[in-house]
Amino acid sequence: MSADRDVILQVEKLQTQFQVGRRIVKAVNGVSFRVERGRTLGVVGESGCGKSVTAHSILQLLPKLGSITDGKITYHSDNGPIVLNKLRKNGGAIRAIRGKEIGMIFQDPMASLNPVYTIGNQICENILQHENVSKKEAAARAVEMLTLLGIPRAEARLKDYPHQFSGGMKQRVMIAMAMVCNPKLLIADEPTTALDVTIQAQILELMKEVQVKYGTSIILITHNMGIVAEMADEIAVMYMGRIVEFGTVRQVLGSPRHPYTKALLNSVPVLGIGKGERLQTIRGSTPDPSDMPEGCEFAPRCDMATERCKSVPDETDLGGGHCVRCWNCMGGT
Amino acid sequence: MGKTAAKSSLALRNWEKLCRNKLAMVGFAIISVMILCAILAPVLSSNKPDEIDLSNRLMPPSGEHLLGTDKLGRDVFARILYGARVSILIGLSGALGGALIGTVIGCFSGYLGGWFDKITLRISEIFMTFPQLILVLILVVYIGQGLFNLILIFAVTGWTGTYRLVRGRFLSLREENYVDACRAFGIGELSIMFRHILPNTLSPVIVTVTLATAGYILAESGLSFLGLGVPSGIPTWGNIINAAKAVDVIRNNPWLWLPPGLAISLFVMGVNFLGDGLRDVLDPNQ
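YS: structure for the whole thing
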Protein backbone atom coordinates (compact mmCIF):
# COMPACT_ATOMS: atom_id res chain seq x y z
CA MET A 1 0.00 0.00 0.00
CA SER A 2 2.73 2.46 0.84
CA ALA A 3 5.23 1.28 -1.74
CA ASP A 4 3.44 2.50 -4.82
CA ARG A 5 2.65 6.00 -3.51
CA ASP A 6 4.96 8.93 -4.07
CA VAL A 7 6.94 9.97 -1.01
CA ILE A 8 7.57 13.68 -0.57
CA LEU A 9 9.38 13.71 2.75
CA GLN A 10 11.39 10.94 4.36
CA VAL A 11 12.70 11.17 7.89
CA GLU A 12 15.12 8.46 8.96
CA LYS A 13 16.30 7.88 12.53
CA LEU A 14 16.23 11.56 13.41
CA GLN A 15 18.02 12.53 16.62
CA THR A 16 17.66 16.06 17.92
CA GLN A 17 19.01 17.23 21.22
CA PHE A 18 19.30 20.37 23.31
CA GLN A 19 22.43 21.20 25.23
CA VAL A 20 21.51 23.05 28.42
CA GLY A 21 24.76 23.61 30.27
CA ARG A 22 25.90 20.12 31.13
CA ARG A 23 22.55 18.48 30.63
CA ILE A 24 21.66 16.98 27.32
CA VAL A 25 17.99 16.70 26.57
CA LYS A 26 17.18 14.22 23.81
CA ALA A 27 14.01 15.68 22.44
CA VAL A 28 13.80 13.44 19.38
CA ASN A 29 15.21 9.97 19.79
CA GLY A 30 15.33 7.97 16.61
CA VAL A 31 12.19 9.07 14.77
CA SER A 32 11.47 7.70 11.30
CA PHE A 33 8.45 8.33 9.14
CA ARG A 34 7.49 9.27 5.64
CA VAL A 35 4.89 11.61 4.20
CA GLU A 36 3.20 10.70 0.93
CA ARG A 37 2.30 13.24 -1.72
CA GLY A 38 -1.15 14.70 -1.32
CA ARG A 39 -1.78 12.95 1.99
CA THR A 40 -1.93 14.12 5.57
CA LEU A 41 0.21 12.72 8.34
CA GLY A 42 -0.99 13.40 11.85
CA VAL A 43 1.57 13.46 14.63
CA VAL A 44 -0.02 13.13 18.06
CA GLY A 45 1.30 12.97 21.57
CA GLU A 46 1.35 14.77 24.88
CA SER A 47 3.00 18.14 25.42
CA GLY A 48 6.73 17.66 25.53
CA CYS A 49 6.90 14.47 23.50
CA GLY A 50 8.94 16.05 20.75
CA LYS A 51 6.36 16.70 18.04
CA SER A 52 7.16 20.38 17.61
CA VAL A 53 10.89 19.76 17.78
CA THR A 54 10.56 17.22 14.98
CA ALA A 55 8.73 19.76 12.86
CA HIS A 56 11.27 22.47 13.56
CA SER A 57 14.11 20.06 12.81
CA ILE A 58 12.77 19.45 9.30
CA LEU A 59 13.26 23.08 8.33
CA GLN A 60 16.28 23.64 10.58
CA LEU A 61 14.37 26.15 12.69
CA LEU A 62 15.80 24.91 15.96
CA PRO A 63 16.92 27.49 18.52
CA LYS A 64 20.62 28.01 19.27
CA LEU A 65 20.91 25.28 21.84
CA GLY A 66 19.29 22.65 19.66
CA SER A 67 20.99 20.53 17.07
CA ILE A 68 20.34 17.53 14.89
CA THR A 69 22.88 14.95 15.97
CA ASP A 70 21.96 12.05 13.73
CA GLY A 71 19.60 10.91 11.06
CA LYS A 72 18.58 11.99 7.61
CA ILE A 73 15.74 14.16 6.39
CA THR A 74 15.16 13.86 2.66
CA TYR A 75 12.83 16.12 0.75
CA HIS A 76 11.87 14.87 -2.70
CA SER A 77 11.62 18.04 -4.73
CA ASP A 78 10.89 18.37 -8.42
CA ASN A 79 14.62 18.53 -9.03
CA GLY A 80 15.50 15.42 -7.11
CA PRO A 81 16.02 14.56 -3.47
CA ILE A 82 17.54 17.14 -1.12
CA VAL A 83 18.95 16.14 2.24
CA LEU A 84 17.62 18.92 4.44
CA ASN A 85 19.70 18.40 7.55
CA LYS A 86 22.90 18.68 5.55
CA LEU A 87 22.09 22.22 4.38
CA ARG A 88 23.61 25.15 6.21
CA LYS A 89 21.29 26.57 8.84
CA ASN A 90 19.87 29.89 7.59
CA GLY A 91 21.89 29.52 4.41
CA GLY A 92 20.58 30.38 0.97
CA ALA A 93 19.66 26.82 0.03
CA ILE A 94 17.35 26.13 2.92
CA ARG A 95 15.87 29.62 2.80
CA ALA A 96 14.86 28.95 -0.78
CA ILE A 97 12.96 25.90 0.41
CA ARG A 98 11.36 27.54 3.44
CA GLY A 99 8.14 29.18 2.45
CA LYS A 100 8.38 28.10 -1.17
CA GLU A 101 8.56 24.30 -1.13
CA ILE A 102 7.79 23.62 2.50
CA GLY A 103 5.54 25.98 4.40
CA MET A 104 4.92 26.15 8.12
CA ILE A 105 1.98 27.32 10.21
CA PHE A 106 2.60 28.09 13.84
CA GLN A 107 0.56 27.57 16.93
CA ASP A 108 -0.18 31.09 18.13
CA PRO A 109 -1.48 33.37 15.37
CA MET A 110 -1.72 36.24 17.83
CA ALA A 111 2.02 36.50 18.11
CA SER A 112 3.12 35.30 14.71
CA LEU A 113 2.48 38.51 12.83
CA ASN A 114 4.66 41.61 13.08
CA PRO A 115 2.51 44.37 14.59
CA VAL A 116 4.13 47.25 12.73
CA TYR A 117 3.47 46.10 9.17
CA THR A 118 0.20 45.61 7.31
CA ILE A 119 -0.72 42.04 6.56
CA GLY A 120 -0.59 42.83 2.86
CA ASN A 121 3.01 43.89 3.33
CA GLN A 122 3.84 40.68 5.16
CA ILE A 123 2.16 38.34 2.68
CA CYS A 124 3.74 40.12 -0.28
CA GLU A 125 7.14 39.98 1.39
CA ASN A 126 6.89 36.20 1.34
CA ILE A 127 5.94 36.16 -2.34
CA LEU A 128 8.62 38.62 -3.39
CA GLN A 129 11.22 36.73 -1.36
CA HIS A 130 10.78 33.62 -3.45
CA GLU A 131 9.41 34.65 -6.80
CA ASN A 132 10.34 37.18 -9.40
CA VAL A 133 7.08 39.03 -9.79
CA SER A 134 6.10 42.67 -9.59
CA LYS A 135 4.59 44.18 -6.47
CA LYS A 136 1.24 44.48 -8.19
CA GLU A 137 1.19 40.81 -9.11
CA ALA A 138 2.22 39.86 -5.61
CA ALA A 139 -0.64 41.90 -4.18
CA ALA A 140 -3.07 40.30 -6.62
CA ARG A 141 -1.97 36.84 -5.54
CA ALA A 142 -2.30 37.81 -1.90
CA VAL A 143 -5.87 38.96 -2.51
CA GLU A 144 -6.64 35.73 -4.36
CA MET A 145 -5.34 33.58 -1.53
CA LEU A 146 -7.11 35.58 1.18
CA THR A 147 -10.38 35.37 -0.70
CA LEU A 148 -9.94 31.63 -1.09
CA LEU A 149 -9.44 31.36 2.65
CA GLY A 150 -12.69 33.16 3.32
CA ILE A 151 -11.59 36.66 4.26
CA PRO A 152 -14.18 39.11 2.93
CA ARG A 153 -13.15 42.30 1.10
CA ALA A 154 -9.62 40.99 0.88
CA GLU A 155 -8.31 43.85 -1.21
CA ALA A 156 -9.21 46.46 1.37
CA ARG A 157 -8.01 44.23 4.19
CA LEU A 158 -4.51 44.09 2.73
CA LYS A 159 -3.92 47.55 4.16
CA ASP A 160 -5.00 46.55 7.66
CA TYR A 161 -2.73 45.81 10.58
CA PRO A 162 -2.68 42.54 12.54
CA HIS A 163 -4.40 44.06 15.53
CA GLN A 164 -7.46 44.69 13.37
CA PHE A 165 -8.06 40.96 12.87
CA SER A 166 -9.61 38.41 15.19
CA GLY A 167 -7.79 35.22 16.17
CA GLY A 168 -9.46 33.05 13.56
CA MET A 169 -8.81 35.65 10.87
CA LYS A 170 -5.17 35.92 11.88
CA GLN A 171 -4.72 32.19 11.55
CA ARG A 172 -6.27 32.37 8.08
CA VAL A 173 -3.77 35.10 7.24
CA MET A 174 -0.96 32.85 8.50
CA ILE A 175 -2.24 30.00 6.34
CA ALA A 176 -2.40 32.40 3.41
CA MET A 177 1.19 33.44 4.03
CA ALA A 178 2.28 29.82 4.16
CA MET A 179 0.30 28.80 1.06
CA VAL A 180 0.87 31.79 -1.15
CA CYS A 181 3.89 30.29 -2.91
CA ASN A 182 2.10 26.95 -3.34
CA PRO A 183 4.38 24.80 -1.22
CA LYS A 184 4.30 21.06 -1.81
CA LEU A 185 4.41 20.32 1.90
CA LEU A 186 2.69 22.17 4.71
CA ILE A 187 3.73 21.63 8.31
CA ALA A 188 0.97 22.73 10.66
CA ASP A 189 2.18 22.90 14.27
CA GLU A 190 -0.96 22.83 16.41
CA PRO A 191 -2.72 25.30 14.11
CA THR A 192 -5.99 25.34 15.99
CA THR A 193 -4.93 24.98 19.62
CA ALA A 194 -5.21 28.69 20.29
CA LEU A 195 -8.63 29.03 18.65
CA ASP A 196 -12.11 28.27 19.84
CA VAL A 197 -13.92 25.16 18.64
CA THR A 198 -16.13 26.66 15.95
CA ILE A 199 -13.21 28.48 14.36
CA GLN A 200 -11.19 25.31 14.72
CA ALA A 201 -13.65 23.45 12.52
CA GLN A 202 -13.54 26.19 9.89
CA ILE A 203 -9.77 26.25 9.75
CA LEU A 204 -9.59 22.48 9.39
CA GLU A 205 -12.13 22.58 6.57
CA LEU A 206 -10.03 25.21 4.86
CA MET A 207 -6.92 23.10 5.13
CA LYS A 208 -8.75 20.16 3.61
CA GLU A 209 -9.95 22.34 0.75
CA VAL A 210 -6.45 23.63 0.14
CA GLN A 211 -5.15 20.11 0.06
CA VAL A 212 -7.74 19.02 -2.45
CA LYS A 213 -7.22 22.06 -4.64
CA TYR A 214 -3.43 22.19 -4.67
CA GLY A 215 -2.49 18.61 -3.84
CA THR A 216 -0.47 19.77 -0.83
CA SER A 217 0.86 17.19 1.58
CA ILE A 218 0.29 18.09 5.20
CA ILE A 219 2.01 17.19 8.46
CA LEU A 220 -0.50 18.00 11.17
CA ILE A 221 0.87 18.17 14.69
CA THR A 222 -1.63 18.15 17.50
CA HIS A 223 -2.54 16.65 20.83
CA ASN A 224 -6.20 16.50 19.90
CA MET A 225 -7.25 13.01 18.80
CA GLY A 226 -10.49 14.33 17.37
CA ILE A 227 -8.73 16.60 14.88
CA VAL A 228 -6.42 13.83 13.82
CA ALA A 229 -9.31 11.46 13.29
CA GLU A 230 -10.95 13.94 10.98
CA MET A 231 -7.98 15.24 9.05
CA ALA A 232 -5.26 12.65 8.85
CA ASP A 233 -4.71 9.74 6.49
CA GLU A 234 -1.89 8.33 8.58
CA ILE A 235 -1.00 8.78 12.23
CA ALA A 236 2.25 8.65 14.16
CA VAL A 237 1.88 8.47 17.92
CA MET A 238 4.87 9.92 19.75
CA TYR A 239 6.00 9.52 23.32
CA MET A 240 9.16 11.07 24.78
CA GLY A 241 10.91 11.46 21.48
CA ARG A 242 10.00 8.13 19.89
CA ILE A 243 7.24 7.01 17.60
CA VAL A 244 5.46 4.23 19.46
CA GLU A 245 2.82 3.47 16.88
CA PHE A 246 2.38 4.28 13.19
CA GLY A 247 -0.30 3.38 10.70
CA THR A 248 -3.36 4.55 8.84
CA VAL A 249 -6.12 6.27 10.79
CA ARG A 250 -8.21 3.15 10.60
CA GLN A 251 -5.45 0.97 11.94
CA VAL A 252 -4.27 3.19 14.79
CA LEU A 253 -7.60 4.54 15.97
CA GLY A 254 -9.65 1.49 15.09
CA SER A 255 -7.35 -1.14 16.49
CA PRO A 256 -4.66 0.49 18.60
CA ARG A 257 -1.96 -1.90 19.76
CA HIS A 258 0.46 0.09 21.87
CA PRO A 259 -0.56 0.52 25.52
CA TYR A 260 0.07 4.25 25.28
CA THR A 261 -2.17 4.67 22.25
CA LYS A 262 -4.88 2.68 23.95
CA ALA A 263 -4.58 4.74 27.12
CA LEU A 264 -4.66 8.00 25.12
CA LEU A 265 -7.82 7.00 23.32
CA ASN A 266 -9.44 5.91 26.57
CA SER A 267 -8.65 9.20 28.23
CA VAL A 268 -10.50 11.33 25.67
CA PRO A 269 -13.60 12.60 27.43
CA VAL A 270 -16.87 11.68 25.77
CA LEU A 271 -19.87 13.96 25.84
CA GLY A 272 -22.78 12.47 27.68
CA ILE A 273 -21.05 10.33 30.27
CA GLY A 274 -22.69 10.63 33.65
CA LYS A 275 -21.41 13.12 36.23
CA GLY A 276 -20.51 10.35 38.59
CA GLU A 277 -18.14 8.65 36.17
CA ARG A 278 -14.43 9.39 36.48
CA LEU A 279 -12.24 10.35 33.56
CA GLN A 280 -9.66 7.79 32.62
CA THR A 281 -6.12 9.00 33.10
CA ILE A 282 -2.71 7.57 32.45
CA ARG A 283 -1.08 7.03 35.82
CA GLY A 284 2.19 8.70 36.65
CA SER A 285 3.64 11.62 34.73
CA THR A 286 6.09 12.12 31.91
CA PRO A 287 9.69 11.65 33.04
CA ASP A 288 12.32 14.41 33.06
CA PRO A 289 13.66 14.38 29.51
CA SER A 290 17.26 14.72 30.63
CA ASP A 291 16.92 11.75 32.94
CA MET A 292 14.90 9.18 31.04
CA PRO A 293 14.48 5.58 32.22
CA GLU A 294 16.41 2.80 30.55
CA GLY A 295 14.57 0.84 27.95
CA CYS A 296 11.01 1.63 26.96
CA GLU A 297 10.17 5.15 28.12
CA PHE A 298 6.55 4.31 28.78
CA ALA A 299 7.27 1.28 31.00
CA PRO A 300 7.00 3.11 34.37
CA ARG A 301 3.43 4.12 33.51
CA CYS A 302 2.41 0.99 31.67
CA ASP A 303 0.11 -1.62 33.15
CA MET A 304 1.55 -4.31 30.95
CA ALA A 305 5.24 -3.71 31.69
CA THR A 306 7.45 -6.76 32.05
CA GLU A 307 11.14 -7.46 32.62
CA ARG A 308 11.74 -7.24 28.86
CA CYS A 309 10.73 -3.60 28.90
CA LYS A 310 14.08 -2.67 30.43
CA SER A 311 15.46 -2.61 26.91
CA VAL A 312 14.09 -0.50 24.09
CA PRO A 313 11.66 -2.55 21.98
CA ASP A 314 12.26 -2.94 18.26
CA GLU A 315 9.70 -1.86 15.76
CA THR A 316 7.24 -4.61 14.93
CA ASP A 317 5.47 -4.55 11.59
CA LEU A 318 1.91 -5.76 12.15
CA GLY A 319 1.19 -5.85 8.47
CA GLY A 320 -0.27 -3.32 6.06
CA GLY A 321 2.06 -0.57 7.21
CA HIS A 322 0.90 -0.67 10.83
CA CYS A 323 3.99 -0.57 13.06
CA VAL A 324 4.26 -0.61 16.81
CA ARG A 325 7.13 -0.45 19.28
CA CYS A 326 6.20 -2.71 22.15
CA TRP A 327 7.43 -6.07 23.42
CA ASN A 328 3.87 -7.11 24.18
CA CYS A 329 2.85 -6.81 20.58
CA MET A 330 5.46 -9.05 19.09
CA GLY A 331 4.48 -12.36 17.69
CA GLY A 332 1.29 -11.52 15.84
CA THR A 333 -2.12 -10.49 17.20
CA MET B 1 -15.64 52.10 8.90
CA GLY B 2 -13.63 51.45 5.81
CA LYS B 3 -11.67 54.71 5.67
CA THR B 4 -10.85 55.05 9.35
CA ALA B 5 -9.92 51.39 9.70
CA ALA B 6 -7.66 51.43 6.67
CA LYS B 7 -5.67 54.41 7.91
CA SER B 8 -5.26 53.14 11.41
CA SER B 9 -1.52 52.72 11.36
CA LEU B 10 0.40 52.82 14.60
CA ALA B 11 2.05 56.09 13.59
CA LEU B 12 -1.24 57.81 12.93
CA ARG B 13 -2.80 56.73 16.22
CA ASN B 14 0.27 57.88 18.10
CA TRP B 15 0.17 61.24 16.34
CA GLU B 16 -3.43 61.75 17.37
CA LYS B 17 -2.59 60.85 20.94
CA LEU B 18 0.30 63.31 20.89
CA CYS B 19 -1.93 66.10 19.63
CA ARG B 20 -4.12 65.73 22.68
CA ASN B 21 -1.16 66.54 24.95
CA LYS B 22 -1.33 70.33 25.32
CA LEU B 23 2.15 70.79 26.71
CA ALA B 24 3.69 68.74 23.94
CA MET B 25 1.84 70.83 21.39
CA VAL B 26 3.15 74.03 23.01
CA GLY B 27 6.66 72.61 22.79
CA PHE B 28 6.10 71.64 19.17
CA ALA B 29 4.84 75.12 18.36
CA ILE B 30 7.84 76.78 20.00
CA ILE B 31 10.32 74.61 18.14
CA SER B 32 8.53 74.96 14.85
CA VAL B 33 8.40 78.74 15.07
CA MET B 34 12.07 78.96 15.98
CA ILE B 35 13.13 76.59 13.21
CA LEU B 36 11.05 78.58 10.78
CA CYS B 37 12.76 81.78 11.89
CA ALA B 38 16.12 80.12 11.45
CA ILE B 39 15.25 79.04 7.92
CA LEU B 40 13.81 82.44 7.06
CA ALA B 41 16.79 84.31 8.53
CA PRO B 42 17.62 86.21 5.33
CA VAL B 43 14.00 87.30 5.09
CA LEU B 44 13.70 88.46 8.68
CA SER B 45 16.91 90.42 8.81
CA SER B 46 18.63 92.33 6.07
CA ASN B 47 21.91 92.46 7.99
CA LYS B 48 24.66 89.93 7.59
CA PRO B 49 25.76 88.09 10.73
CA ASP B 50 29.47 88.45 10.04
CA GLU B 51 29.47 92.01 8.78
CA ILE B 52 32.08 93.73 10.92
CA ASP B 53 31.46 97.42 11.48
CA LEU B 54 33.95 98.76 13.96
CA SER B 55 32.40 102.21 14.01
CA ASN B 56 29.19 100.85 15.45
CA ARG B 57 30.49 98.65 18.23
CA LEU B 58 28.33 97.76 21.25
CA MET B 59 25.34 99.81 20.17
CA PRO B 60 22.12 99.20 22.12
CA PRO B 61 18.97 98.06 20.27
CA SER B 62 17.77 100.50 17.64
CA GLY B 63 15.67 100.66 14.54
CA GLU B 64 18.46 99.48 12.30
CA HIS B 65 19.86 96.84 14.67
CA LEU B 66 16.89 95.27 16.44
CA LEU B 67 19.02 93.80 19.17
CA GLY B 68 22.01 96.05 18.98
CA THR B 69 25.56 95.20 17.94
CA ASP B 70 28.36 93.24 19.53
CA LYS B 71 32.04 93.94 20.17
CA LEU B 72 32.88 93.87 16.46
CA GLY B 73 29.84 95.80 15.35
CA ARG B 74 28.00 92.75 14.06
CA ASP B 75 24.19 92.77 14.21
CA VAL B 76 23.09 90.65 17.17
CA PHE B 77 19.63 89.88 15.80
CA ALA B 78 21.05 88.53 12.56
CA ARG B 79 23.63 86.53 14.47
CA ILE B 80 20.94 84.99 16.61
CA LEU B 81 18.86 84.04 13.56
CA TYR B 82 21.78 82.53 11.66
CA GLY B 83 23.16 81.13 14.87
CA ALA B 84 19.91 79.27 15.39
CA ARG B 85 20.61 77.33 12.20
CA VAL B 86 24.00 76.20 13.42
CA SER B 87 23.02 75.45 17.00
CA ILE B 88 19.98 73.43 16.01
CA LEU B 89 21.98 71.66 13.34
CA ILE B 90 24.68 70.70 15.81
CA GLY B 91 22.17 69.54 18.37
CA LEU B 92 20.16 67.47 15.93
CA SER B 93 23.09 66.03 13.99
CA GLY B 94 24.96 65.10 17.14
CA ALA B 95 21.90 63.35 18.53
CA LEU B 96 21.08 61.61 15.24
CA GLY B 97 24.69 60.60 14.66
CA GLY B 98 25.00 59.11 18.11
CA ALA B 99 21.66 57.35 17.73
CA LEU B 100 22.69 55.92 14.36
CA ILE B 101 25.94 54.48 15.69
CA GLY B 102 24.26 53.19 18.84
CA THR B 103 21.35 51.64 16.95
CA VAL B 104 23.42 49.78 14.39
CA ILE B 105 25.85 48.40 16.95
CA GLY B 106 22.98 47.64 19.33
CA CYS B 107 21.17 45.71 16.56
CA PHE B 108 24.04 43.37 15.92
CA SER B 109 24.92 43.12 19.59
CA GLY B 110 21.43 42.23 20.77
CA TYR B 111 20.56 39.93 17.90
CA LEU B 112 23.77 37.99 17.43
CA GLY B 113 25.09 37.86 20.97
CA GLY B 114 28.32 35.94 21.33
CA TRP B 115 31.76 37.54 21.33
CA PHE B 116 30.67 40.65 19.39
CA ASP B 117 28.14 41.42 22.08
CA LYS B 118 30.61 40.85 24.90
CA ILE B 119 33.26 43.09 23.35
CA THR B 120 30.96 45.97 22.46
CA LEU B 121 29.32 45.80 25.86
CA ARG B 122 32.68 46.25 27.56
CA ILE B 123 33.61 49.07 25.19
CA SER B 124 30.33 50.84 25.92
CA GLU B 125 30.96 50.48 29.63
CA ILE B 126 34.37 52.10 29.24
CA PHE B 127 32.78 55.01 27.42
CA MET B 128 30.13 55.33 30.08
CA THR B 129 32.53 55.48 33.01
CA PHE B 130 33.91 58.78 31.73
CA PRO B 131 31.65 61.81 32.21
CA GLN B 132 30.69 62.76 28.70
CA LEU B 133 31.79 66.36 29.12
CA ILE B 134 35.34 65.36 30.07
CA LEU B 135 35.49 63.06 27.06
CA VAL B 136 34.22 65.83 24.80
CA LEU B 137 36.77 68.30 26.18
CA ILE B 138 39.62 65.87 25.68
CA LEU B 139 38.55 65.16 22.12
CA VAL B 140 38.07 68.84 21.29
CA VAL B 141 41.59 69.58 22.44
CA TYR B 142 42.91 66.58 20.55
CA ILE B 143 40.95 66.76 17.28
CA GLY B 144 40.52 70.50 17.20
CA GLN B 145 37.61 72.88 17.05
CA GLY B 146 35.16 73.23 14.23
CA LEU B 147 31.55 72.67 13.32
CA PHE B 148 31.95 69.24 11.81
CA ASN B 149 34.44 68.14 14.45
CA LEU B 150 31.98 69.02 17.19
CA ILE B 151 29.17 67.02 15.61
CA LEU B 152 31.53 64.08 15.20
CA ILE B 153 32.68 64.29 18.80
CA PHE B 154 29.10 64.45 20.08
CA ALA B 155 28.14 61.42 18.00
CA VAL B 156 31.16 59.40 19.04
CA THR B 157 30.73 60.08 22.76
CA GLY B 158 26.97 59.82 22.94
CA TRP B 159 26.20 56.48 21.31
CA THR B 160 26.16 54.36 24.43
CA GLY B 161 22.69 55.32 25.65
CA THR B 162 20.99 54.32 22.43
CA TYR B 163 23.20 51.25 22.16
CA ARG B 164 22.04 49.85 25.49
CA LEU B 165 18.43 50.70 24.71
CA VAL B 166 18.41 49.03 21.31
CA ARG B 167 20.43 46.07 22.50
CA GLY B 168 18.01 45.44 25.35
CA ARG B 169 15.00 45.58 23.04
CA PHE B 170 16.64 43.26 20.55
CA LEU B 171 17.46 40.74 23.26
CA SER B 172 13.78 40.38 24.07
CA LEU B 173 12.29 40.90 20.61
CA ARG B 174 14.42 38.26 18.91
CA GLU B 175 12.48 35.65 20.89
CA GLU B 176 9.16 36.86 19.49
CA ASN B 177 7.04 34.43 17.51
CA TYR B 178 6.96 36.57 14.41
CA VAL B 179 10.73 36.30 14.17
CA ASP B 180 10.37 32.51 14.05
CA ALA B 181 7.65 32.89 11.47
CA CYS B 182 9.92 35.09 9.35
CA ARG B 183 12.63 32.45 9.40
CA ALA B 184 10.08 29.81 8.45
CA PHE B 185 9.27 31.85 5.36
CA GLY B 186 12.89 31.92 4.33
CA ILE B 187 13.60 35.55 5.17
CA GLY B 188 17.29 36.21 5.75
CA GLU B 189 18.83 37.24 9.08
CA LEU B 190 19.81 40.79 8.05
CA SER B 191 16.31 41.36 6.75
CA ILE B 192 14.83 40.12 10.00
CA MET B 193 17.08 42.42 12.03
CA PHE B 194 16.56 45.61 10.11
CA ARG B 195 13.17 45.27 8.46
CA HIS B 196 11.28 43.38 11.13
CA ILE B 197 12.72 43.89 14.58
CA LEU B 198 14.18 47.38 14.22
CA PRO B 199 10.87 49.21 13.58
CA ASN B 200 9.63 47.73 16.84
CA THR B 201 12.53 49.25 18.76
CA LEU B 202 12.41 52.78 17.38
CA SER B 203 9.95 54.36 19.81
CA PRO B 204 12.36 54.85 22.72
CA VAL B 205 15.10 55.80 20.27
CA ILE B 206 12.95 58.65 18.92
CA VAL B 207 12.42 59.93 22.44
CA THR B 208 16.14 59.70 23.18
CA VAL B 209 17.09 61.59 20.02
CA THR B 210 14.62 64.36 20.81
CA LEU B 211 15.84 64.86 24.34
CA ALA B 212 19.48 64.46 23.34
CA THR B 213 19.10 67.30 20.84
CA ALA B 214 18.31 69.65 23.71
CA GLY B 215 21.24 68.30 25.66
CA TYR B 216 23.66 68.82 22.81
CA ILE B 217 22.49 72.38 22.19
CA LEU B 218 23.21 73.12 25.83
CA ALA B 219 26.55 71.33 25.59
CA GLU B 220 27.53 73.32 22.52
CA SER B 221 26.57 76.56 24.24
CA GLY B 222 28.67 75.65 27.21
CA LEU B 223 31.66 74.73 25.08
CA SER B 224 31.40 77.84 22.91
CA PHE B 225 31.04 79.98 25.99
CA LEU B 226 34.33 78.50 27.19
CA GLY B 227 35.80 79.14 23.78
CA LEU B 228 36.15 75.45 23.01
CA GLY B 229 33.16 75.08 20.72
CA VAL B 230 32.59 76.51 17.29
CA PRO B 231 34.98 79.38 16.49
CA SER B 232 33.28 82.76 16.34
CA GLY B 233 33.50 83.08 12.57
CA ILE B 234 30.37 80.92 12.41
CA PRO B 235 27.72 82.32 14.74
CA THR B 236 26.06 79.99 17.22
CA TRP B 237 23.98 80.84 20.24
CA GLY B 238 26.83 79.69 22.41
CA ASN B 239 29.54 81.82 20.99
CA ILE B 240 27.36 84.92 21.02
CA ILE B 241 27.14 84.49 24.78
CA ASN B 242 30.90 84.04 24.77
CA ALA B 243 31.14 87.79 24.63
CA ALA B 244 29.50 88.02 28.04
CA LYS B 245 32.44 86.68 29.97
CA ALA B 246 33.40 90.05 31.36
CA VAL B 247 31.33 91.38 34.27
CA ASP B 248 30.93 94.87 32.76
CA VAL B 249 29.43 93.36 29.63
CA ILE B 250 26.90 91.52 31.74
CA ARG B 251 26.00 94.70 33.54
CA ASN B 252 26.12 97.22 30.73
CA ASN B 253 25.27 95.32 27.55
CA PRO B 254 22.37 93.02 28.37
CA TRP B 255 21.37 92.81 24.70
CA LEU B 256 24.46 90.75 24.05
CA TRP B 257 23.70 87.84 26.36
CA LEU B 258 20.03 88.04 27.24
CA PRO B 259 18.51 87.29 23.80
CA PRO B 260 20.72 84.30 22.95
CA GLY B 261 20.30 82.98 26.47
CA LEU B 262 16.54 83.27 26.17
CA ALA B 263 16.66 81.65 22.75
CA ILE B 264 18.54 78.65 24.09
CA SER B 265 16.27 78.32 27.12
CA LEU B 266 13.13 78.61 25.04
CA PHE B 267 14.23 76.09 22.46
CA VAL B 268 15.47 73.58 25.00
CA MET B 269 12.25 73.95 26.98
CA GLY B 270 10.20 73.37 23.85
CA VAL B 271 12.20 70.28 22.97
CA ASN B 272 11.80 68.90 26.46
CA PHE B 273 8.03 69.43 26.38
CA LEU B 274 7.80 67.65 23.05
CA GLY B 275 10.14 64.90 24.19
CA ASP B 276 8.10 64.27 27.34
CA GLY B 277 4.95 64.14 25.28
CA LEU B 278 6.56 61.69 22.87
CA ARG B 279 7.69 59.54 25.76
CA ASP B 280 4.15 59.39 27.13
CA VAL B 281 2.83 58.33 23.75
CA LEU B 282 5.52 55.91 22.70
CA ASP B 283 6.09 54.27 26.07
CA PRO B 284 5.73 50.53 25.59
CA ASN B 285 3.94 50.25 28.91
CA GLN B 286 0.67 51.39 27.48
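YS: worth flagging: Residues 197-214 of chain A form the longest helix (18 residues).
IM: good catch. Also Residues 16 and 68 of chain A are 4 Å apart (CA to CA).
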